[in-house]
């Protein structure tokens, strides 16, 4: 199987695909809001340090496991565990987590698609009304949008690694960069825009509390697509000639640069809409920012550029987010696809069919858990509140299991696979790796403080979320 495993055609193809995975809704919306609320430049600094000191070593370790074994998480843990079974659970979590995160991410992507369609149909003024979001996500149109999004993902993934994933990334990522820059330029020409820039970049160190630090790390971890088995799987498609550490650096830089640039789009837009806005009051979630606040900002543009142009800007923005979301979804669904193909010997087509059906049903449950179906809306309750099916998937897999997966990976790589084997794999394609500072840092950090930090986040989340 592994002898004819498909590969990315070049290092650039791999970097764009991995960056396509990393750049998502988290970068475009989550990051700017988080940064603005939590100390601006001070948050940026903490975030950048986490990317460099904590996330990069984990990213490198994931890619190395994939390339070494030529397998997805289940196969990779098995292969590197020399026939032992004690780590199989970590591998299984590495496939189950992306599958479940795909479910909640899919729901949001479907909403974005719906917003594009409604705006194109002339409905921007409707979307700017307070009840629109709630009405739309509980309307039958949502099911149509779901079918279209699933078809797009299927279309990309069925074509395989080189002709599907890589090709999509090579088209969508540069398009996304250009669109983002154009949006920034447009937004910065609006009145009062620079008050937003100031708010985003001027540091306020008094805001840096333990929970902000925790939030910055979770944001960075999620944003770089760690703990979801994605980089193990994509790593299994990189050639033995590629330098993993160098590639990982480029992916991390791209992801962080996009997140930063998105801040230069979102905050100036918010401030030009309302110079009195206090970012502290900005909605708590990215979801309400995208779906209720931003449509109001777009509609307000009609007084200066007219309704049609304002709608055009809105469509442009939602498309930008949509492209980012699609390349992330593709990467996350590729993990279970690869599992079914590599471990269960299904054809790619059949694997995709199985996944589209199972993930489709769960996505349906999550979609109707915003009021349409009582059973899923009031699915369970914990920590003193009723939780929907969507909440549960989000709380369990995104918030809790993600750092746990990272923790397991660090311990496995350092103490089971062993550091010298990691070093060996990382020097393939990079003759100067052994003995370098990077090697010493990666080996030291993965075996010591990174798992400790991830354990802290995991325990803290469990305590805060569920008790
Ligand atoms: N990095 C993505 C983001 O910031 C997270 C993600 C990756 C989500 C892959 C789903 C799949 O939005």
Automatic annotation (TrEMBL):
<feature type="transmembrane region" description="Helical">
    <location>
        <begin position="141"/>
        <end position="161"/>
    </location>
</feature>
<feature type="transmembrane region" description="Helical">
    <location>
        <begin position="449"/>
        <end position="467"/>
    </location>
</feature>
<feature type="transmembrane region" description="Helical">
    <location>
        <begin position="250"/>
        <end position="271"/>
    </location>
</feature>
<dbReference type="GO" id="GO:0016020">
    <property type="term" value="C:membrane"/>
</dbReference>
<feature type="transmembrane region" description="Helical">
    <location>
        <begin position="12"/>
        <end position="33"/>
    </location>
</feature>
<keyword id="KW-0813">Transport</keyword>
<dbReference type="InterPro" id="IPR047218">
    <property type="entry name" value="YocR/YhdH-like"/>
</dbReference>
<feature type="transmembrane region" description="Helical">
    <location>
        <begin position="396"/>
        <end position="415"/>
    </location>
</feature>
<feature type="transmembrane region" description="Helical">
    <location>
        <begin position="99"/>
        <end position="121"/>
    </location>
</feature>
<feature type="transmembrane region" description="Helical">
    <location>
        <begin position="305"/>
        <end position="330"/>
    </location>
</feature>
<feature type="transmembrane region" description="Helical">
    <location>
        <begin position="351"/>
        <end position="376"/>
    </location>
</feature>
<feature type="transmembrane region" description="Helical">
    <location>
        <begin position="39"/>
        <end position="61"/>
    </location>
</feature>
<keyword id="KW-0472">Membrane</keyword>
<dbReference type="InterPro" id="IPR000175">
    <property type="entry name" value="Na/ntran_symport"/>
</dbReference>
<keyword id="KW-1133">Transmembrane helix</keyword>
<dbReference type="InterPro" id="IPR037272">
    <property type="entry name" value="SNS_sf"/>
</dbReference>
<feature type="transmembrane region" description="Helical">
    <location>
        <begin position="220"/>
        <end position="238"/>
    </location>
</feature>
<protein>
    <submittedName>
        <fullName>Sodium-dependent transporter</fullName>
    </submittedName>
</protein>
<dbReference type="Pfam" id="PF00209">
    <property type="entry name" value="SNF"/>
</dbReference>
<keyword id="KW-0812">Transmembrane</keyword>
<feature type="transmembrane region" description="Helical">
    <location>
        <begin position="173"/>
        <end position="200"/>
    </location>
</feature>
């Amino acid at each position: 199987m592994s002898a004819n495993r498909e590969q990315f055609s070049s290092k650039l193809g791999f970097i764009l695909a991995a960056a396509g995975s990393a750049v998502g809704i988290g970068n475009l919306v989550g990051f700017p809001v988080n940064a603005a609320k939590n100390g601006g430049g001070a948050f940026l600094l903490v975030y950048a340090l986490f990317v460099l000191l904590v996330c990069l070593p984990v990213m490198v370790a994931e890619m190395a496991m994939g390339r070494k074994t030529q397998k997805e998480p289940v196969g990779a843990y098995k292969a590197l565990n020399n026939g032992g079974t004690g780590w199989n659970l970590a591998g299984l979590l590495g496939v189950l987590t992306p599958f479940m995160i795909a479910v909640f991410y899919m729901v949001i992507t479907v909403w974005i698609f719906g917003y594009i369609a409604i705006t194109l149909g002339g409905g921007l003024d409707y979307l700017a009304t307070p009840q629109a979001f709630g009405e739309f996500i509980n309307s039958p149109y949502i099911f149509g949008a779901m079918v279209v999004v699933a078809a797009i993902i299927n279309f990309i993934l069925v074509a395989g690694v080189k002709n599907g994933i890589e090709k999509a990334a090579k088209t969508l990522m540069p398009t996304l960069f250009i669109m983002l820059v154009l949006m920034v330029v447009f937004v910065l020409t609006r009145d009062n825009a620079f008050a937003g820039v100031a708010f985003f970049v001027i540091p306020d160190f008094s805001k840096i509390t333990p929970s902000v630090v925790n939030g910055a790390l979770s944001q960075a971890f999620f944003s770089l697509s760690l703990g979801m088995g994605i980089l193990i799987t994509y790593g299994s498609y990189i050639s033995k000639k590629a330098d993993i550490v160098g590639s990982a650096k480029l992916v991390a830089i791209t992801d962080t640069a996009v997140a930063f640039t998105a801040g230069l789009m979102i905050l100036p837009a918010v401030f030009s809409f309302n110079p009195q806005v206090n970012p502290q009051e900005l909605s708590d979630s990215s979801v309400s920012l995208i779906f209720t606040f931003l449509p109001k900002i777009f509609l307000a543009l009609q007084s200066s550029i007219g309704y049609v142009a304002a709608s055009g800007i809105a469509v442009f923005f939602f498309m930008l987010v949509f492209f980012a979301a699609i390349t992330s979804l593709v990467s996350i669904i590729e993990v279970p696809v690869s599992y079914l193909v590599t471990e269960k010997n299904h054809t790619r087509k059949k694997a995709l069919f199985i996944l589209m059906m199972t993930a489709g049903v769960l996505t349906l449950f999550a979609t109707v858990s915003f009021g349409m179906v009582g059973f899923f809306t009031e699915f369970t309750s914990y920590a003193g509140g009723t939780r929907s099916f969507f909440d549960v998937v989000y709380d369990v897999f995104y918030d809790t299991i993600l750092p746990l997966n990272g923790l397991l990976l660090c311990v496995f790589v350092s103490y089971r696979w062993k550091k010298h084997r990691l070093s060996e794999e990382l020097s393939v394609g990079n003759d100067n790796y052994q003995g370098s500072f990077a090697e010493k840092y990666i080996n030291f950090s993965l075996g010591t403080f990174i798992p400790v930090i991830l354990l802290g986040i995991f325990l803290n989340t469990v305590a805060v979320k569920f008790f």
